[in-house]
Design brief:
The chain is an alpha/beta fold. Helices cover 39% and strands 16% of the residues. The chain is built from ten helices and ten strands. It has an eight-stranded parallel beta barrel with strand order 3-4-5-6-7-8-9-10, surrounded by seven helices. A two-stranded antiparallel ribbon has the order 1-2. β7, α7 and β8 form a beta-alpha-beta unit. α2 crosses α4, α4 packs across α5 and α7 runs parallel beside α8. The radius of gyration is 20 Å and the shape is globular. The termini are far apart. Bound molecules: 3-methyl-2-oxobutanoic acid.
Length: 277
């Protein structure tokens, strides 16, 4: 992403802001996003120019080892979000509101959003749901807090949806469009489309003024977001079909830790160069 200066030459973006998301959509520049849960990876992703970092409730799986995102709490996500916000010098940091922290209504949603904004340094919050979350989004936005919406497959509702099911296929596209319009009208600055057929995602992207961010939503969206441990080859177990594997960190770390153990057992580590005189 870049910004147009007075001389009409693109200037590098110092800090990504909501207006850059909008400009990216208008100029056809694709937005990149990754999840991040700690200071070290956030620094790497920020230095690499990733536009936004989502401290996702996927931390429930990737950090805390649960089967779903449902058990993760506000108190667990706050310190992770703070660490990412400290690390990110350019990237826009989005705090995910966990299951059970916003659904009862706009007051609860705003209270939770305040906590994340005050206690972490995040720049926006994300919450799941289209029409059903529109009033929550409206209230949070009216307090000056940017909201990234999330429709399609919403993992916090996985039991209600009957598992990891693609959403917005066939006739369901009407509901997807309704959800998309509802979050846009409520003031969301961007919307995540998760596990949606490529054609449906393309349709939503054409319909909306705000940018769409795809997670398993094909190429015709305004940006792409992935859970970083998936593409880096660190996640164990099932990896969604839409993930391209860019690294094998599981293999690299396994090899490294095996070498460390073997060196300790054989007495070749530490060597004199690792010892104080
Ligand atoms: O928590 C998360 O990582 C997410 C993305 C997958 C959209 O919500």
């Amino acid at each position: 992403m870049s910004e147009t200066s007075d001389a009409s030459t693109p200037a590098p973006v110092k800090r990504v802001r909501t207006r850059h998301f909008q400009q990216a959509k208008e100029r056809g520049i694709r937005i990149t996003g990754l999840t991040s849960y700690d200071y070290l990876t956030a620094r790497i992703f920020d230095d690499a120019g990733v536009d936004f970092l989502l401290v996702g409730d996927s931390a429930g799986n990737t950090v805390f080892g649960h089967d779903t995102t449902l058990p993760v709490t506000i108190d667990e996500l706050l310190p992770l979000t703070r660490a990412v916000a400290i690390a990110a010098k350019r990237a826009f940091v989005v705090a995910d509101l966990p299951f059970g922290s916003y659904e009862t209504g706009p007051d609860e949603a705003l209270h939770t959003a305040f906590r994340f904004m005050k206690e972490t340094g995040a720049h926006a919050v994300k919450l799941e749901g289209g029409v059903r979350s529109a009033e929550q989004i409206r209230r949070i936005v009216s307090a000056g807090i940017p909201v990234m919406a999330h429709i399609g497959f919403t993992p916090q509702s996985e039991h209600g949806l009957g598992g990891h099911m693609i959403q917005g296929r066939g006739d369901q596209v009407k509901q997807l469009l309704e959800d998309a319009r509802a979050v846009q009208d409520a003031g969301a600055f961007a919307v995540v489309l998760e596990m949606v057929p490529a054609d449906s995602a393309a349709l939503v992207t054409q319909e909306l003024r705000i940018p769409t961010i795809g997670v398993g939503a094909g190429p015709e969206v305004d940006g792409q977001l992935l859970v970083w441990t998936d593409w880096a080859g660190l996640t164990s177990g099932r990896i969604p079909r839409f993930v391209r594997k860019y690294a094998d960190l599981h293999g690299i770390l396994t090899e490294a830790v095996t070498a460390f153990r073997s060196d300790v057992e054989s007495g070749t580590y530490p060597g004199p160069e690792h010892s104080y005189e």
